[in-house]
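Example 3.
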Amino acid sequence: MTEAADRAELVRLADVTKRFGDASPALDAVSGSILGGEITGLVGPDGAGKTTLIRLMTGLMLPDSGSVSVLGFTTARDPAAIQAAIGYMPQRFGLYEDLSVQENLDLYADLRGLPKHERAATFDELLTFTDLKRFTGRLAGKLSGGMKQKLGLACALLKKPRLLLLDEPGVGVDPISRRDLWTMVEDLTKEGIGVVWSTAYLDEAEVCDGVLLLNQGKLMFAGKPADMTARVEGRVFRVSGVSGRKRQVLAKLLDEEGIIDGVIQGEALRIVAGQGTEPAFRSAGDGAKAAPAPPRFEDAFVDMLGGGPGGRSRLAEAQQPLAGKDDRPVIEAKGLTKRFGDFTAADGITFDIQRGEIFGLLGPNGAGKSTTFKMLCGLLKPTAGEGRVAGFDLRRDAASARNQLGYMAQKFSLYGDLSIAQNLDFFAGVYGLSGQRKRERIHLMNEIFDFGRHAAQSSKDLPLGLKQRLALACAVMHEPRALFLDEPTSGVDPITRREFWTHINALVEKGVTVLVTTHFMEEAEYCDRISLIYRGRSIALGSPDELKTRVVTDDQPDPTMEDAFIALIRQSEAETRQAA
Amino acid sequence: MSTSPTSDRIRRFAALVRKESYQAVRDPSTTLIAFVLPLILLFLFGYGVSLDTTRTRVGLVMEETTPLTQSLAASFQASRYFAVATNRDRRVFEEDLVNGRIRGILVIPASFTTDYAAGNHPQVQVIVDGSEPNTANFVQNYAQGAVANWERQRQALMAEGAPAISIEQRFWFNPELTSRYFLVPGSIAIVMTLVGTLLTSLVVAREWERGTMEAMMATPVTAVELLIGKIFPYFLLGLAAMTLCVLLAVFLFGVPFRGSVVALYALSATFLVPALGQGLLISAATKNQFLASQLALITAFLPAFLLSGFLFEINSMPTVIQWITFIVPARYLIPSLQTVFLAGDIWPMFLHSIAVMLTIGAVFFLAAARSTRKRIG
Amino acid sequence: MWWTRLRALIVKELLAVLRDPKGRAILIGPPLIQLLVFSYAATLEVRNVDVMILNRDSGHWGQKLVERIDGSPTFRKIVIAANPQQVREAIDGQDVIAAVEIGPDFSRGIEAGTPVDLQIILDGRRSNASQIVSGYLTQIAGGLAAETPAGKRSAGRSISTIPRNWFNPNLTYQWFMVPNLIASIALLIGLIVTALSIARERELGTFDQLMVSPLRVHEILIGKLLPPMMIGLFHITLYILAALFIFGLPLRGSLFLLYGSGIFYLASVVGIGLFISALSMTQQQAILGAFLFMVPAMLLSGFATPIENMPDWLQPVTLVNPLRYFLIIVKGVFLKDIGLAEVVHQTIPLCLIAAVTLSAAAWLFRRRLE
């Protein structure tokens, strides 16, 4: 395989700028290229300009200035020629939900002009490849997220494209399906196809052949991921054996000289030191060991952005410490079961969450973690079993229970047409704050989160980071004893995510209890304990380190959270098969 | 390439049509708009809305009872337009008139017999409820008619010679003046507006919302193929809904059908051109189902209802509004449909309507094609 | 405490409608279009129509009749036909709505005192307008008849009908239409704003946010019902002002009664709106649902055509239509000065409908929370 033939330049971006309205440009003078036979990661937080860049490559959108040439054609002049030779899977996979799998394939085969005599073979190959053979008669709308995505990919691959554009194929898809998809796409690159894979997950960037890193419309980095991580080589440490509570230690460490970034990783801390500094890790205590760790893409990105936020949370400082009235757990789930018709979405889920604990619900889509979460915050009535929050039974005393909980939903469901000030006012009101206390709390939130300048802006027009802060402010305004977080940081940039967890960590230290659902493996590491939910049942429960240890094998001496997740699910599947 | 560009194009087109048809069949909102709503509308206009004032309730006040006034009263009672209650005192009826229980009071005054005998300009008073002007007009007309009838009979009877001018009215095409006969054909035009514009704008906007339009556009399909493939099934659906309505009109509501089926389909098919064009234009401009439905209701459904001559006389509207009616396609379809049903084939009229509808349709299509060029954002 | 929560919710609901461009569009667009188009265009009056005359009489009386028809303000254009063929074509093609055929013996017969026939052909496809036109033509012919020698002789004995139009002396169509619009705008706005409010929250994902707050279900219900009622009252007020100051309607009854019953009317309307809202998952479905209710409600209310014209088996259906009762009240208060007793008589059914729709909506709403 000759390098020159395979790695032909498929896309060339020259000073590409695109604006929408008066806002700052969605893409600002981006230049770069995409090669054949490679997976190029188009990486960046939501709103960085990834989708815009992909649309520019399809020729469906034209740049305001600069030029995009794809497969030798300029998008401005020859979009038809490009569209005939590429495969494109837009964010929601471009499937017709009320058409069956086979009908979707037939439609795209006709549209792409796949000759009749080749069809049988191609369909067979793709259906085998995507493992959808059994489902050809099923409506696309009835497929799981992972299956939809595979079908979307199959449709994009019907007539072997030279360039395959995948817009956030990993969103709404669990790690197992994501890994399957990745393997499929890797196979394609062996045939010389160029693949663009856009993602907000920075860990996906590490395994790409090349990366274009976007942030706020600007190209931050272009090249091999190793070149990116090289910038923090030797500055990343795994600090284990800290004395005292790890969250407090992390907060102190982050304010120490020479430390620019740090996150919790199970029982240990992952710390990034600044350029040319020798961190002392004083706050970690005498018994702590700081071992060098392999750098990650995210470490480098944070470093490039100038380091993470400090460890101080003014939100938590303003919070009264919550003394435990008794030793009763704050959140209790006893045999929670939910059936929809003859489908059991959650089956006998049991756990307790103690005061000041972060508890994570992890699991593939549709496994039952949202159902469990919803039952515990009173959005769904359990078919059987009981749930308690702060001692209040959710069946009988739902309203009292709700007074004790703060809720932050996926995608920060705020009232988009209300301004920041009006949102704060509303949430203060529904939680019964009034008069002096209401004014004080709103004032405090404004100060802590620095809303001042944006206070009158409709919240739907805010940048994602600010939306996330507002959602947090609304959820904690009434000083709840328990916080329910549903995918709290999906799609936000790493700095905002760290800031968010700094607040949560500090609140937990004050005695607030947190239940979080997440897809995001980094986030799972913040939890004290995790319950892994699969097919409606809790298949594993323990601290992140325990779960990882359970799956240690010779091949995988140091598994990541994602490895643990996948291994545990495979184990469970194997057990079910054996039982059957 | 083993296939020619033309056969590719045909295959793509067929694929689009097939996809759209599957979706139309499987989507409940299609059934709702294409079949349930039409049935409701047809039912409402067939039974609920009736402009026929048969048997309006009126009060008859006879301030004196003489053979003369009794014979006049008999003439009112014989009128097929009135249901008459009689009393000597008008005050009995006044409250009923205020509360809308009767629509008019006919007063034969105490001096009637003397005035008549003396040739002293006898009078009959007709008091009507002006808060319902249309009904009020009819009551007056019918009262006048009943009086004239009575005079004619009387003059013949007394051999005083017939009146100077006797009027013979003939209502062509609809001698019984059944309002259903023109309301039901008119509502078929409204149904086709719903299918053509509302439904089409919804399904196209849905493609934009769900991102499938984007996926389509990144294939070798051309914009024209996309648009035509999209609307062709709805064209057929519109004709199907129309056929259903016509069958009901003829067999359930007994509306006569005097024209030809050819004319019916020619007119309906032509009407769908501007209706579908408008639907496409709306969805291309809004790319959002919610806004599309709002716009379709305001710019297509309401005008088809109000500004088409369906219920209200265009001639009586203010000039500015009359101008607006010229671009409402239903304005051309409704009289033609009424004609096909009630009068028969009058081709000069049909051809004119067809020409205007095609022109409006062409404008809509050009505008829609312009805004659906294969570009987003 | 409950008041703090409820107030926050009401303020939020109002802001959500007023700050959302779509919401504002609904509050301003349809009401304006309705007011302008309906009050000016939706008229059953007949004006500016064209009439054809086939005058086969060569004498003086035929000419006189032509002049009289020509002089009538109702008709725009008088077309003189040369032969019956032209009459047929003009009626067929809807060029004219009516044709008057004056027979060859018209003048001679009148002079001789023998009865003459006048034939009027009307387009039955537009039967409503035709009937009105026929009324006009009959009047004109009657006027002419009174001047004929025979007419003059019997003038003293010919009966004249004296029209008296109570409540609306000139039968101004807008006096009828605008009160109807006041009632129907409240229906339109109340229904759509309520129907959309929950569907919108569901779509945006904020509904869960509400449900996990300490707001109780009945507080959410009240918080969802009051703002649309307030908006409905606002529109009613605007329309009343327009009725008085733009369209010059008289206000003969008590506004107090109008508003008093208006509250019950709005309660029954938002109850239906909430019912639709609880049933629909998307704003799309909510709009279609509101539409599906609105069209029959308008047509079966007495607005378009009097209820007594409907078939007997259909009339009871209108009893559950809140618009039916409020129409009577609005027209009554504006034009007829109806009294308290009559208003109460019409308001009682509104109370019943409101009680049923609100409790049905509340029941459904609770059920959908499962």
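Chain B has a mean pLDDT of 87. Chain B touches chain C through 103 residues (CB under 8 Å).
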